[in-house]
Amino acid sequence: MDNFLSEKIYNPPIHNKIINHDPLPEFRQLLYWNPNMKIKSTAAVNFYASDWPSDYLVEVSGWGPNGKVSSYSIIKISAE
Asked: For residue 77, what is the DSSP state?
């Protein structure tokens, strides 16, 4: 958890309307970033990762108004 608070660079993917079915896995460490999202108890997020269904490990973190980390979770989700 040493790099938990370190700055991460987010490079949004270039979405191609043609599905290529690229067999290469998604290597970006950050697939979605929304610093303005406000969550009360639940929220839904859609993100693009790659053309093939896969399992993803999602790290969710939040900061309070004082700048301190207010939550940290790792959730495993599966492609439908």
From this structure: E
How far is residue 3's CA from residue 51's CA, in Å, rounded to a whole number?
29
Evaluate if pTM is beyond 0.85. Answer: no
DSSP label at 25?
P
Task: Return the closest-CA partner of residue 32 out of 61, 6, 3, 53.
Answer: 61
Q: How far is CA 38 from the centre of its chain?
A: 15
Q: Which amino acid is at 55?
A: D
| Number of residues that make up the chain | 80
Two structure tokens written together for 64? 């309070």
Q: What is the pLDDT of residues 30-52, one digit of tens each?
A: 777 777 777 777 777 777 666 66
- Residue spans of the domains in the chain: they are 1-80
Angstrom distance (rounded) from CA 55 to CA 10: 21
